[in-house]
Every structure is written in C-alpha cells, then in structure tokens.
Amino acid sequence: MNWRVCLENYYNHITLEKNLSNNSIESYMRDLTQFSEFNKKKRPLHIKRNDIINYINHINKNKISTRTQARILSSIRSLYDFLILENQLEIDPCKHITTPQLGSKIPVVLSVEEIDKIISFIDLSEENGERNRVIIECLYSCGLRVSELISLRISDISFSENIIKIIGKGDQQRIVPLSKTLKKYLNNYINYIRSKQKNKKNNDIVFLNKRGGQLSRVMIFNIVKKYTKLSGIKKIVSPHTFRHSFATHLVEGGADLRVVQEMLGHANITTTEIYTHLSNEYLRQEIITHHPRA
Question: Is 11 a catalytic residue?
Fold first, then answer.
C-alpha cells in the first residue's frame, strides 16, 4: 500500500466514522501529507520509530512551536492507530515516542473598556462598517469560534426568543443568549445593509463579503487586526481573544463553570477551568496594582 491509498483510506475513516470538525480533518490531512512527503521513499507500513523521530527532528529545525509539534505527532499517532485497527500493522511505530510538553499558557484577555474602544474605531460610514461592528460584537457577546461565526445562519437566530443556535465542533449544537446590543446591531445589519447585497448562493449566511460570498477565516482575522491597530491597543489580539474575554468576564462575574462550559461548547469541563485561573490572575494583578501593601 502506497501513501496515496493509505491517506485516502484514513481520510474516509475520519470523515465517516470520527465526528471531527472540517478544520480538524484539514489539519490531520495536512500534517500527514507533509509527513508522507518527508518519507516518500518508504511505504507507510514500513515506517519505523526512527523515521518518526527523524521527522520530529526535521520540523524542530524549522523552529515549529511545541504546540504544533504535539498536534503533528497526534496526527501521526491517529494514522497508525487506524492502521492497527484495520489489521494492517501489529507494531505501533509511535510507541514510546513522548509528546512535547505543553506549558499552561494563559491566553490574552481584553477588558470591557478595551473591547468598547476597538468597536469605537469602526467607521460606520465605511462600506462594511456596520457589518464589521456586528462581527466583533458577535465574537464577544456570544464567545464564538471563527468557524462558528462565518457559518452562522439567519435561520439560527431567534429575535423573538433572544437566542442564537450555534453549530460547533463535531456538529454539536448549543444555544447562546442574544444580548440587547447584539440584537440591535444584527437587526440593523440584516434588514438594512445585508438585504441590499447580491447573495443568491448564500441567502441564509449572516456575514457576506461585497460580492455576496461567505467570509473566510482570514478576512475575520484581518478585520480584528485592523481595528485593534487603529485603537492603539498593544496586546496581541485575534478573533479568539474575544472568546477568551467572553468566558473570563463570565467567570469574574460569578457565573457557574458548568454554564460557561455550555456557553463555550466545551466537551470537557477541564478545558473551561483555565478561565478560573485567568480570573485568579486578574485578581492577583488587581491586588498588586491597588493594594498599599502589595
């Protein structure tokens, strides 16, 4: 079996049997394609432990982050788990290869004032000003991932019940409340701005580009980067920063961790627990800054 057939079989397996998101599938296949190119002189069933270690050493030379290395090794492990499951292999070449240790990196969080400042620098007279204001408010008010934002549909929004249905990772559904501010912005954008765009192919997608097409992840990153720079905020801000801020502000406000887990769509509450650490760090900084004995 050559690499092409092997990866096709694996792709069919994770697409049909593994309830993975499209982004996860793309990441796995990209990692494995690069791994196969590095080992193109060997067939996938002939790969040994040393071949994998050599590849890890190779990507190390390119100064790839520990987190990315861990993801790549996870992709390779997943492939060989599949081959063993299919009785193609008996010995796992990934056995005894340790995953790089990930540090507990605390994500960047914006204050409410900083979020308001970023939004205030959006020029509503610009062509996409109204749309961009709704995008940033939606990221923060609902704690959405970028993939969830760009695939959001008008039919998922209930203005009468003040809720939005979100389709998250693995096609898992969750409900988030629609705030008064976001409701006002969405109503204005959908009824008076978006309705004028040509959007026959995407007539239910909320956020469209000037040609009536669905926005890309890169476009959302560029929107956030643009207004963060204009606002003069020096933090490294990405669309996911608004999701971190959403969760942190909920925890700081006393929200139950299970509620925050539900709102974020986390499968495991241990993923949500980072926000209790963020809140503790915030309290510590406040004491250092304001207490006379600090």
Answer: no
